[in-house]
Specification:
This protein has about 725 residues and is α+β, with helices and mostly antiparallel strands. Among the domains are: about 160 residues, Glutaredoxin, CATH 3.40.30; about 90 residues, no CATH class; about 80 residues. The chain is about 45% helix and about 10% strand. The strands form seven sheets. Strands 1-3-2-4-5 form a five-stranded mixed beta sheet, with helices on both faces. The longest helix is centred in the first third of the chain and has 19 residues. It is globular and about 85 Å long. The termini are far apart. The relative contact order is 0.09.
Length: about 725
């Protein structure tokens, strides 16, 4: 392509999403004082557009509207236009998404909102087609109508925006009511289990019909519910629901069978046709969930899926300096000569393409069988494509196949007269060949932004998998990423986290001119990651940093009047509302995760005020937890941990000794949601000994590695047998 015809201010930004719009004919501004001042000076409405770089409908709206010269002229004439990357500025996104959801009944990206010059919203929606169609207002019409209303009815719009903001302020407030205490754990957990059980899809797993999302928060809740109710029919059902869902997801098209990792969600009930973008936060949470499934079941199938996710992230989402990139796009060019991107083009296959790549006859199989025959049968490939037209409204997948494991290995082997063990090797050879062929296709766009929060989730994935699967390489990768965070997303002078950094030229890491300070979710997910990394590596530096960050989180975000933490810190005049997230979605909300973080922090430090804070958060969310805990499954899970009290498992031993290692292997092989692990290695000057003086009284028995099970810093009799320890770890 020739030189771009237009360049706007976004060319000076670091965000891949903002840079995608730097050559629109729209006079875009980034979120900031320059744009706000212009709106006030010229008395213009602000048009705010929020999205992210791997968002399919954001691309569509850009192609249809933001690249249009005519629409660009209307926008520039009547509005001050601001672009925001919702992954960079979740605080801005949350304020206006709350408005859009309250006024339209739905939300999503791209988000389109019209604001008064003092940033109060008065109209909004999500995707707009360029022109009116099918009872839907077009973007051009919306722009012209709003410009006209601002000219003719400005006072009414200003009054309306003021009323809307006050209503939002009242309805979005989450605070403790009177002397409320944490809700009863049994009632909350039982209600959450029943609500999940009612929405469960018995045949395909998951908790809705379509679209279907992985929702790791639901699966983590079910694992904890099982652990606390192992001997009951409800406990057995909770475990069955979680494991069946994980198996069906892994067999489905939402799982990339060739290049590993998981796509964002399935558009159908069967986990078959996905929305093809791949997000870091999904990979991190799913790696941890599949590792727990292996811990609980002992089934290598789940361990293999966890390894598969971590292979994808190590290969495709890893920066050489140790950080993790945010996402890969759903859309890409089908061939190197294509002019238009298509959703899923990198991932789908035509039957004839597979036959050409896998022509080899299979020795020992039914006569005439080729590798292609075996592979296509196993993965549900059809000559004319296997995508239901209902799942493909734009016909981007016509004649294509999304791979889905339709048969068990035993059935496929029997179909072609093969030994099951032989089939595994054949399918592996096929997948390897297709991976090589796919590597020749144009890759989807990579969002190389690195976010503290999502890196935290991924560090937890590597650390938990490393511990549960006894794979030291994963623990090392988690430590490498934590060191990256400390170098690039932490300011040692202020002691604060930063939100984001970016891959620069020559593989350097760059920061924006004015770095974005970390939000609550950055602290919460990084603290969780550092606790997970300590338990996997037993290196006390990570523990020390986690406790420092917890103190900083308290200082920046705690609400001393209404309890719980605000999502953003005080003092930003451009933020109209300080909100508290109240829903566990694709990621758990920060207050949900921080309950368990606070309980772990108290166990590692002896600061019991953190236990009190955990209870105050549960009290602030008490009404929601008792009525609709399915909206907060991670917080519902935390109520169980709060009420059962975390057990401190203390190992006294030489970290390099075989007896210590055997004890640690035993602890890590057992799923026990209400424990924290620590190593008392005799270094009385070490960080843990300074925090917890009672550790000095614990010693090895008969010179062997010895385990103690402690609760509220009171310890059980010493145990030197791994088998005895295993029995003690069950809740």
């Amino acid at each position: 392509p020739g030189a771009p015809r237009h360049t706007n201010r976004l060319i000076n930004e670091k965000s891949p999403y903002l840079l995608q719009h730097a050559h629109n004919p729209v006079d875009w501004y980034p979120w900031g004082q320059e744009a706000f001042d212009k709106a006030k000076r010229e008395n213009k409405v602000i048009f705010l557009s929020v999205g992210y770089s791997t968002c399919h409908w954001c691309h569509v709206m850009e192609e249809e509207s933001f690249k249009s010269k005519e629409i660009g002229e209307i926008m520039n004439k009547h509005f001050v236009c601001i672009k925001v990357d919702h992954e960079e500025r979740p605080d801005v996104d949350k304020v206006y998404m709350t408005f859009v959801q309250a006024t339209s009944g739905g939300g999503g990206w791209p988000m389109s909102v019209w604001l008064t010059p003092d940033l109060k919203p008065f109209a909004g929606g999500t995707y707009f087609p360029p022109e009116d169609r099918f009872h839907r207002v077009g973007f051009r019409t919306a722009l012209l109508r709003i410009a006209e209303q601002w000219e003719e009815n400005k006072d009414a719009l200003l009054e309306s925006s003021h009323r809307i903001l006050e209503a939002l302020r009242q309805t979005s407030e989450i605070r403790v009511q009177g002397q409320e205490s944490p809700p009863p754990s049994k009632e909350v957990m039982d209600t959450c289990f029943q609500q999940l059980s009612r929405s469960y899809d018995e045949e395909y797993g998951g908790f809705s019909q379509a679209p279907k999302f992985p929702t790791p928060v639901n699966l983590n809740f079910l694992f904890t519910y099982w652990a606390l109710h192992r001997t009951t029919p409800e406990g057995a059902r909770a475990l069955q629901m979680a494991l069946h869902t994980l198996k069906m997801m892994a067999h489905g098209g939402i799982h990339d069978h060739i290049s590993q990792g998981f796509h964002r969600y399935s558009t159908d009930q069967h986990w078959h046709v996905p929305h093809f973008e791949k997000m870091l936060y999904d990979q991190g949470q799913l790696a941890a969930v599949y590792s727990r499934a292996f811990q609980i079941s002992g089934d290598e199938f789940f361990a293999d899926v966890a390894r598969d996710i971590l292979l994808y992230v190590s290969r495709d989402l890893s920066d050489q300096t140790g950080g993790f990139y945010s996402a890969e796009d759903a859309d890409s060019y089908p061939t190197t000569t294509s002019k238009e991107k298509r959703e899923g083009a990198f991932c789908v296959w035509e039957a004839k393409e597979l036959q050409a790549l896998l022509p080899d006859p299979v020795e020992g199989a039914t006569e005439g069988t080729t590798l292609g025959d075996v592979f296509m049968h196993h993965y549900g490939v059809k000559e004319n494509g296997n995508v239901d037209p209902m799942q493909d409204p734009h016909e981007e997948l016509k004649g294509k196949n999304v791979l889905i494991a339709r048969c068990s290995p035993e059935l496929t082997a029997a179909r072609f007269g093969l030994e099951p063990g032989r089939l595994d090797a054949l399918l592996q050879e096929c997948r390897h060949r297709l991976g090589t062929a796919r590597a020749q296709r144009p890759r989807p766009h990579l969002d190389s932004k690195m976010l503290a929060a999502w890196n935290g989730l991924m560090i937890s994935g590597f650390a938990q998998a490393g511990a549960a699967l006894a794979e030291q390489g994963y623990v090392h990768r988690a430590a490498q990423a934590a060191a990256f965070l400390r170098t690039h997303l932490f300011d040692p002078d202020s002691g604060r986290l930063l939100r984001s950094c970016y891959r620069g030229k020559d593989s350097s890491v760059e920061q924006s001119a004015v770095p974005i300070q970390g939000f609550l979710e950055d602290y919460v997910f990084v603290i969780q990651a550092l606790f997970d990394l300590y338990e996997a590596s037993l290196e006390q530096d990570w523990l020390e940093w986690a406790l420092h960050l917890q103190h900083m989180q308290d200082k920046l975000f705690w609400d001393p009047k209404g309890f719980a933490y605000f999502s953003s810190e005080a003092g930003d005049p451009s933020l109209l509302l300080r909100l508290k997230g109240d829903q566990d979605g694709a990621e758990p909300t920060a207050n949900s995760v921080t309950v368990t973080n606070l309980l772990r922090a108290a166990c590692y430090s002896g600061h019991m005020d953190w236990v009190e804070k955990a209870g105050q958060i549960l009290a602030a969310f008490s009404e929601r937890l008792q009525k609709i805990p399915i909206a907060l499954p991670e917080m519902a899970r935390a109520t169980g941990i709060f009420h059962h009290t975390l057990k401190q498992v203390v190992i006294c031993g030489d970290p390099q000794g075989e007896d210590t290692k055997e004890m640690l292997r035993c602890i890590r092989s057992v799923f026990s949601p209400n424990k924290v692990l620590m190593l008392a290695d005799g270094d009385s000057a070490g960080f843990l000994y300074r925090q917890l003086p009672f550790l000095a009284s614990l010693e090895r028995k008969d010179g062997k590695a010895t385990a103690y099970l402690c609760s509220n810093f009171t310890c059980s009799l010493p145990v030197t047998s791994a088998q005895e320890l295993r029995g003690m770890l069950s809740p």
